[in-house]
């Protein structure tokens, strides 16, 4: 799929219309990969995700991610250990790869509840919490949230 900016004008209008009205479920992954530029990045860097997973080890990064796995999406049945298939493994891999890709952010679980630090802002959290990452466990794509 072409990136939206390089599509012919009619296609750009069509993509905008679908995005505004909601992309049908069967097309969402391909549309997201194209519109976000993720497919182009994957094409420029084949195997990068796998290299991140197989590269250097960081015990502290791995432990921080493992600690939060059971608390991540606790109400979503697909992320429970007894789910078939359980998405905790793919999510762990995406978070680990992102932690290796972006050492400045690493891994940080954002706590939507009240802060544990009495001096912290309940609505804003720390800079690192605000500049976290979100991931698509099906494609291995990670994108920043802010």
Automatic annotation (TrEMBL):
Coiled-coil stretches: none
Keywords: GTPase activation
Originating species: Cervus elaphus hippelaphus
Gene Ontology molecular function, alphabetical: GTPase activator activity; small GTPase binding
Residue ranges, annotated region (Disordered): 110-134
Claim: Cytoplasm is one of the keywords in the record: no
Transmembrane stretches, start-end: none
PANTHER family named in the record: GROWTH HORMONE-REGULATED TBC PROTEIN 1 (PTHR47219:SF10), RAB GTPASE-ACTIVATING PROTEIN 1-LIKE (PTHR47219)
Domain Rab-GAP TBC as annotated: residue spans: 22-146
Keyword Manganese applies: no
Function of the protein: May act as a GTPase-activating protein for Rab family protein(s).
The protein's name: GRTP1
């Amino acid at each position: 799929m072409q990136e939206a900016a390089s599509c012919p004008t009619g296609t750009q209008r069509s993509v905008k219309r679908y995005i505004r009205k909601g992309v049908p479920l069967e097309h969402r992954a391909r549309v997201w990969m194209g519109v976000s530029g993720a497919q182009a990045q994957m094409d420029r860097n084949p195997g990068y995700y796998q290299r991140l997973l197989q590269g250097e080890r960081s015990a502290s990064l791995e432990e921080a991610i493992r600690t939060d796995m059971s608390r991540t999406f606790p109400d979503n049945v697909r992320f429970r250990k007894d789910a078939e298939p359980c998405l905790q493994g793919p999510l762990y891999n995406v978070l680990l790869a992102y932690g290796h890709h972006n050492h400045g952010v690493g891994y940080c679980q954002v706590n939507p509840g009240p802060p544990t630090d009495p001096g912290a802002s309940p609505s804003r959290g720390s800079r690192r919490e605000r500049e976290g990452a979100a991931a698509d466990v099906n494609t291995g794509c990670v994108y920043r949230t802010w």
